[in-house]
């Protein structure tokens, strides 16, 4: 994995740190920061994007793209192709901004995600049996009717919006952040936001669903992703922008076995009481192979079908976690130090200085 060069880390491709900061300024009025949770049995902090509006980080990129379009005077209806989370993000953002939205979803998309899109008033068109077929149909409709097609990941405004996850993490000074990768929008944005802070960024993919890892190695051929619980990251070819950014900025990509992913999702539910979808548990599953004193894994979404979750909880019996090692007696500390969290309070960083406080408003 090529290491990122400090001289180019903030201006690779057509998206910059400035774009991520601009996205943060737009989104702060609509989206409060998602919480951190310390999963002690995993030894990892979790960024809970499963508690985000619509249950996934995808709403960040969708909302930023629509707000940026409004600033540019672009009032066209928006259309997207998605297996679920991007469509829900677009639908929610379009509802808040009163923009007509169409979501093309493949047959077989999770019923909970289809219902979530329709709930926010977007038009749902089901077409094809895969994301790629839905994508081709959405592009055709956009060209035929003059709609704005909004990619789920290969769009500068979308990448910048996803990068706001990294800005929120910067205040907690992690030394490594693990991010699930499908098309690469989240990993690209988080890496843009945090590389200048000296944070290692590690991507996570599933065995047989690893198009980005292959592209980084120079193999850009289309793959046929195997069936996986992580349906949200089943991408045949990663984005062009995201491929360039991930190649330049990621420190590593960890490939997770399907069995590891399923066990991690069940452990999350039973031990940490956190409901995640398959892609949402992917970063934590990869984190078992990543060293770091202050590791943070992004739980990217929680929109799992109830039947799928029930089946996993019935069928999978995770191995009990190893008993914690007893710490040696330490020199008594002052009360202030004794109550400090595992993430120390850092000195203000450039990202923190310009990231304004969140204010919640209703539209």
From TrEMBL:
SUPFAM superfamilies tied to this protein: Tryptophan synthase beta subunit-like PLP-dependent enzymes
Record Pfam families: PALP
CDD domains noted in UniProt: Thr-dehyd (cd01562)
Signal peptide range in chain numbering: none
GO BP: isoleucine biosynthetic process; L-serine catabolic process; L-threonine catabolic process
Biased composition (Basic residues): 319-328
Domain Tryptophan synthase beta chain-like PALP: 32-293
InterPro entries membership: Ser/Thr_Dehydratase (IPR050147), TrpB-like_PALP (IPR001926), TrpB-like_PALP_sf (IPR036052)
Enzyme type, top EC level: lyase
Gene Ontology terms, MF aspect: L-serine ammonia-lyase activity; threonine deaminase activity
Biased composition range(s): Low complexity: 332-344
Keywords from the UniProt entry: Lyase, Pyridoxal phosphate
CC cofactor: pyridoxal 5'-phosphate
Segments for region (Disordered): 315-356
EC number: 4.3.1.19
Family that this chain belongs to: Belongs to the serine/threonine dehydratase family.
Protein name as it appears in the record: Threonine dehydratase
Organismal lineage: Bacteria, Pseudomonadati, Pseudomonadota, Gammaproteobacteria, Lysobacterales
């Amino acid at each position: 994995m090529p290491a990122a060069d400090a001289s180019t880390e903030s201006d690779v491709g057509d998206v910059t740190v400035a774009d991520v900061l601009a996205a943060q300024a737009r989104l702060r009025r609509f989206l409060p920061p998602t919480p951190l949770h310390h999963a002690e049995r995993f030894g990892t902090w979790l960024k809970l994007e499963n508690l985000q509006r619509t249950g996934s980080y995808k709403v960040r990129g969708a909302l930023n793209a629509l707000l940026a379009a409004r600033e540019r005077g672009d009032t066209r209806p928006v259309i997207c192709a998605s297996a679920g989370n991007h469509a829900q993000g677009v639908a929610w953002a379009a509802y808040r901004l009163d923009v007509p939205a169409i979501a093309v979803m493949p047959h077989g998309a999770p019923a909970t995600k289809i219902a979530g899109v329709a709930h926010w008033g977007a038009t749902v068109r089901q077409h094809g049996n895969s994301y790629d077929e839905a994508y081709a149909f959405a592009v055709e409709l956009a060209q035929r009717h003059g709609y704005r097609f909004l990619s789920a990941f290969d769009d500068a405004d979308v990448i910048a919006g996803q990068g706001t996850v990294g800005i929120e993490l910067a205040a907690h000074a992690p030394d490594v952040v693990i991010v699930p990768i499908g098309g690469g929008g989240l990993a690209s944005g988080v890496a843009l936001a945090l590389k200048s802070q000296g944070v290692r960024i590690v991507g996570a993919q599933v065995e047989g669903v690893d198009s980005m890892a292959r592209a980084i190695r120079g193999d850009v051929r289309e793959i046929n992703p195997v069936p996986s619980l992580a349906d949200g990251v089943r991408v045949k070819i990663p984005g062009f922008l995201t491929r360039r950014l991930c190649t330049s900025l990621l420190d590593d990509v960890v490939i997770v076995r399907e069995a590891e992913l399923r066990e991690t999702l069940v452990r999350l539910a039973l031990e940490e009481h956190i409901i995640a979808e398959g892609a949402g548990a992917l970063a934590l599953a990869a984190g078992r192979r990543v060293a770091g004193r202050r590791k943070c894994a992004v739980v990217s979404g929680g929109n799992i079908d109830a039947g799928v979750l029930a089946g996993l909880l019935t069928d999978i019996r995770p191995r009990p976690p190893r008993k914690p090692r007893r710490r040696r007696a330490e020199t008594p500390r002052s009360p202030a130090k004794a109550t400090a969290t595992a993430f120390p309070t850092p000195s203000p960083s450039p990202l923190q200085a310009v990231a304004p406080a969140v204010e919640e408003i209703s539209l």
